[in-house]
């Protein structure tokens, strides 16, 4: 079967580097690598001990030509990442030499691994569950140290343990119901219904607590999208440069300098934020600038947060008020730029806005930027966020929790309206199954395939 093939892939990025690692895993991994390895004094690796390394050369199996000098490490299953026998060939970095070593391993009998197949095998072999497997790719894609730590917590089974506890409690409730149904002569349906409703409320509260973290978790995993908007020449590009501490956007005194959308990631206390600098919004006849303005409006609709910049050294104009009306129902921070100059704006004209989210800054001097950062944390994380907190970061997990919660509600409604508790048992089993989808215990095979197909090759 395909799952029992010996697989191979390059586990490091291809390119010029000191070392490349080629990972081989499967029942025949040691035999395959041994057939193309020649150590010092022609020593093979057939007698290599687990968790040791051996120096030698990879050779062409046909003509004995030396391809590269390598160090081979060996991890005997089940004490390896995949829980199968695994070898890692450490060869010189570089596209040509890495591919030549890879070709020899394939010629010797291995198959090129599919995306995520090493992690998939760890899942299929029971070494990790599905939520831990998904955390592996989150670690690789983490944009800040905090998001990386959160993914590490999940890869260690933090979410899995919580879900398993809830499923265990739910299974106890189902067993209680079915025991009552099996012994109708005891006439315990009414008592069981009342007890089950109380237990379901407790379980539902636990699921609700997890769901409350999903918005913050999504931001940690994917990043927060913040778009800087405003009229031309109010300092939008200067603000992006100030956040990045580099001249990423061109800044001039000529209105309309920014014609296209510029995106960069910044890190605010571990929160990954994609900051988008947009073209100034105004009436214009310039075709290119018009296109940029339309892109700006699209980004406003897509963004999690609007950073509206207003030039406080000038009076508010009609264009400013029109932009305010456009964003009033979104999450926003009003940035009154150029606080280093004389203030000519009447703050009373902004009374329709939440004063907690109006901040005076100077993109030129950096004054007030820390207040903007604190305001972002307050808007999305109640001011504080720590890696030890548990977050539901995966949309698939969130959807499974919502469906489980809906099934619990259906069961509770049945119990409130009738004492036919055997009907409630069906909904509770569905909830138990939904929670099992998070860890992969009750998930369809085609969905599992899709999840691992999004991994990088070699992981």
Can you tell me about this structure?
The protein has 459 residues and is of the alpha/beta class. It is 45% helix and 17% strand. The strands form 2 sheets. It has a 7-stranded mixed sheet. α6 (158-182) runs antiparallel to α7. The longest helix has 25 residues, at 158-182. The radius of gyration is 29 Å and the shape is flat.
Output the keywords.
459 residues; 13 strands; 6-stranded mixed beta sheet; alpha/beta
Query: What strand line-up does the widest sheet have?
Result: 3-4-5-6-2-1-7
The helix/strand class is: alpha/beta
Low-pLDDT parts are 249-259, 282-292
Order of helices and strands: EEHEEEEHEHHHHHHEHEEHEHEEHHHH
Summarize the biggest pleated sheet.
Answer: 7 strands, mixed
Calculate the terminal CA-CA distance, rounded to whole Å. 20 Å
Q: If you average the pLDDT, what whole number results?
A: 83
What's the number of helices? 15
Beta-strand content bin? 15-25%
Question: Over all CA atoms, what is the radius of gyration?
Answer: 29 Å
Strand element count:
13
Helix content: 40-55%
Envelope shape: flat
């Amino acid at each position: 079967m395909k799952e029992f093939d010996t697989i191979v892939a390059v586990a490091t990025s291809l390119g010029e580097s000191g070392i490349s690692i080629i990972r081989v895993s499967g029942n025949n991994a040691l035999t395959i690598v041994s057939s193309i390895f020649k150590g010092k004094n022609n020593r093979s690796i057939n007698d290599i001990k687990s968790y040791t390394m051996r120096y030698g050369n990879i050779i062409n199996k046909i003509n004995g030509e030396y391809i590269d000098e390598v160090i081979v490490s060996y991890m005997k299953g089940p004490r390896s990442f995949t829980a199968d026998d695994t070898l890692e060939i450490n060869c010189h970095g570089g596209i040509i030499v890495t591919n030549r070593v890879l070709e020899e391993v394939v010629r010797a009998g291995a198959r090129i691994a599919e995306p995520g197949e090493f992690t998939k095998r760890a899942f299929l072999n029971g070494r990790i569950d599905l939520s831990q497997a998904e955390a592996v790719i989150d670690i690789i894609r983490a944009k800040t140290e905090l998001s990386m730590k959160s993914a590490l917590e999940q890869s260690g089974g933090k979410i899995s343990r919580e879900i398993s506890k809830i499923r265990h409690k739910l299974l106890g409730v189902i067993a209680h119901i079915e025991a009552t149904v099996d012994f109708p002569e005891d006439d315990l349906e009414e008592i069981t219904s009342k007890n089950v409703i109380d237990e379901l409320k407790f379980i539902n509260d636990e699921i609700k607590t997890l769901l409350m973290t999903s918005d913050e978790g999504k931001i940690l995993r994917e990043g927060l999208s913040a778009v800087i908007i405003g009229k031309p020449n109010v300092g939008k590009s200067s603000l992006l440069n100030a956040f990045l501490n580099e001249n990423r956007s061109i800044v001039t005194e000529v209105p309309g300098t920014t014609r296209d959308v510029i995106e960069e990631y910044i890190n605010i206390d571990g929160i990954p934020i994609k900051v988008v600098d947009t073209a100034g919004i105004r009436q214009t006849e310039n075709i290119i600038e018009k296109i940029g303005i339309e892109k700006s409006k699209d980004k406003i609709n897509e963004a999690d947060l609007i950073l509206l910049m207003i030039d406080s050294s000038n009076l508010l104009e009609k264009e400013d008020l029109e932009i305010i009306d456009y964003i009033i129902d979104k999450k926003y921070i009003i940035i009154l730029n150029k606080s280093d100059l004389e203030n000519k704006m009447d703050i009373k004209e902004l009374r329709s806005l939440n004063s907690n989210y109006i901040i005076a800054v100077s993109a030129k001097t950096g004054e007030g930027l820390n207040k903007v950062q604190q305001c972002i944390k307050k808007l999305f994380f109640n001011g504080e966020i720590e890696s030890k907190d548990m977050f539901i970061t995966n949309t698939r997990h969130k959807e499974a929790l919502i469906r489980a919660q809906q099934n619990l509600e259906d069961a509770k409604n049945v119990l409130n309206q009738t004492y036919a508790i055997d009907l409630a048992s069906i909904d509770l089993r569905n909830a138990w199954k939904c929670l099992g989808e998070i860890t992969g215990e009750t998930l369809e095979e085609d969905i599992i395939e899709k999840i691992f197909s999004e991994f990088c090759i070699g992981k």
